[in-house]
């Protein structure tokens, strides 16, 4: 079962899953990207499930003070309890919010994601800290490996 934070109500209720279920997740991700917060996080798993099943979303918080009406409209249309009332993927792709001129991102945006990291400790979707203790299991980039190989091959080091 996916994380409760991105699960659609139909998943929690063991109802059929459709492409509308995926579009719910798009709404959750869009919410998190524009606010830096999760729309349904509760004090515990039970409260989170309740928030999802009742679609308890607060659009009036100060987190939305810098979010365009088009973005809010996009998210509102996706975070709807009844899957049949959500827009199709094609309708989402033609939403005006996705077609407006790109904006340059300020520090406010990237700094806004910090609370998500802090509140997500212990959840599956947590962003790993920059300085991890477990250096052994951290994947290296292919470029780093190739560079290391070339240095060993040259015999300079």
From TrEMBL:
<dbReference type="GO" id="GO:0004674">
    <property type="term" value="F:protein serine/threonine kinase activity"/>
</dbReference>
<dbReference type="GO" id="GO:0005634">
    <property type="term" value="C:nucleus"/>
</dbReference>
<protein>
    <recommendedName>
        <fullName>Protein kinase domain-containing protein</fullName>
    </recommendedName>
</protein>
<dbReference type="Pfam" id="PF00069">
    <property type="entry name" value="Pkinase"/>
</dbReference>
<dbReference type="GO" id="GO:0005524">
    <property type="term" value="F:ATP binding"/>
</dbReference>
<keyword id="KW-0418">Kinase</keyword>
<keyword id="KW-0808">Transferase</keyword>
<dbReference type="GO" id="GO:0043065">
    <property type="term" value="P:positive regulation of apoptotic process"/>
</dbReference>
<dbReference type="GO" id="GO:0035556">
    <property type="term" value="P:intracellular signal transduction"/>
</dbReference>
<keyword id="KW-0723">Serine/threonine-protein kinase</keyword>
<keyword id="KW-0067">ATP-binding</keyword>
<feature type="domain" description="Protein kinase">
    <location>
        <begin position="1"/>
        <end position="98"/>
    </location>
</feature>
<dbReference type="InterPro" id="IPR011009">
    <property type="entry name" value="Kinase-like_dom_sf"/>
</dbReference>
<keyword id="KW-0547">Nucleotide-binding</keyword>
<dbReference type="InterPro" id="IPR000719">
    <property type="entry name" value="Prot_kinase_dom"/>
</dbReference>
<feature type="region of interest" description="Disordered">
    <location>
        <begin position="124"/>
        <end position="145"/>
    </location>
</feature>
């Amino acid at each position: 079962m996916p994380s409760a934070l991105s699960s659609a109500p139909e998943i929690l209720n063991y109802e059929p899953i459709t492409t509308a279920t995926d579009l719910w997740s798009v709404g959750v991700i869009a919410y998190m990207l524009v606010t830096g917060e999760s729309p349904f996080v509760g004090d515990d798993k039970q409260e989170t499930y309740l928030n999802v099943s009742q679609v308890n979303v607060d659009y009036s918080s100060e987190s939305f003070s810098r979010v365009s009406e088009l973005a809010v409209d996009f998210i509102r249309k996706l975070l709807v309890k009844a899957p049949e009332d959500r827009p199709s993927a094609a309708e989402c792709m033609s939403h005006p919010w996705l077609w407006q001129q790109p904006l340059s991102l300020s520090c406010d945006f990237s700094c806004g994601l910090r609370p998500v990291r802090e509140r997500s400790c212990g959840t599956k979707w947590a962003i790993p800290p920059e300085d991890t203790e477990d250096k052994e299991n951290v994947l290296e980039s292919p470029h780093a490996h190739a560079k290391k190989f070339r240095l060993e091959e040259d015999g300079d080091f």
